[in-house]
Amino acid sequence: MIQRTLISVSAMEAKALPNSTTKDKRKYCVTCGTLATQEVLFKVMDATLIERYCDKCVTNVNI
Asked: Residues 47-56: pLDDT tens digits?
């Protein structure tokens, strides 16, 4: 498994609900699929990995 190091956890801005003329730009939790409210940054080798989580799942993030 690739080693990842936690950089930060921050709250995400809530996106407006899409209508028939706009594209859905909301983000979803990588664990459970509900709307994401937290953005977590990890350092992975020479890159930064961004994962988004809901409030419930962010408490279980592997550091």
From this structure: 999 999 999 9
Structure tokens at 42: 């990890």
* Exposed / middle / buried, residue 44 (Cβ in 10 Å: 0-12, 13-18, 19+): exposed
Q: Is 18 inside any structural domain?
A: no
Structural domain includes residue 19: no
Q: Is residue 20 part of a domain?
A: no
Q: How many domains does the chain have?
A: 1
At position 20, the amino acid (one-letter code) is S
Name every residue whose Cβ is closer than 8 Å to that of residue 57 and which is 6 or more positions away in sequence.
29, 30, 31, 32
